[in-house]
């Protein structure tokens, strides 16, 4: 993945999961991309994560991209302990 600016503001849009059709969306704004990534991975239920899109600097990231950002060595925030 290209260099990602974890300090840039980010927005997250979530729906109820996979599938086609219009579903209600929830919107969250974060002061940093790192906080948005942590919220998506550590807070959202798995079924909602797959209906999530994160937008940073007019670039969109799907669930798989968000997970990769959380797992890269340069992720700047502490990660949750494995359960």
What's this entry about, in short?
The protein has 83 residues and is of the alpha+beta class.
Low-confidence stretches: none
CA-based gyration radius: 12 Å
Task: Give the H and E element order.
Answer: EEHHEEH
| Neighbour order of strands in the largest sheet | 2-1-3-4
Query: Which shape, going by the Cα principal axes?
Result: globular
Our count of helices gives 3
Estimated share of beta-strand residues = 15-25%
Q: What structural class should be given to the helix and strand makeup?
A: alpha+beta
- Cα separation of the termini: 27 Å
**Relative helix content:** 25-40%
The largest sheet is: 4 strands, antiparallel
Chain-averaged pLDDT: 89
Q: Mind explaining what this structure looks like?
A:
With 83 residues, the chain is α+β, with helices and mostly antiparallel strands. It has helices at residues 33-42, 46-49, 63-71, and strands at residues 10-14, 26-30, 53-56, 59-61. The longest helix is centred in the middle third of the chain and has 10 residues, at 33-42. The chain is globular and about 35 Å long. The mean pLDDT is 89.
Topology:
Layout: E1 10-14, E2 26-30, H1 33-42, H2 46-49, E3 53-56, E4 59-61, H3 63-71
Antiparallel strand pairs: 1-2, 1-3, 3-4
Helix pairs in contact: 1-3
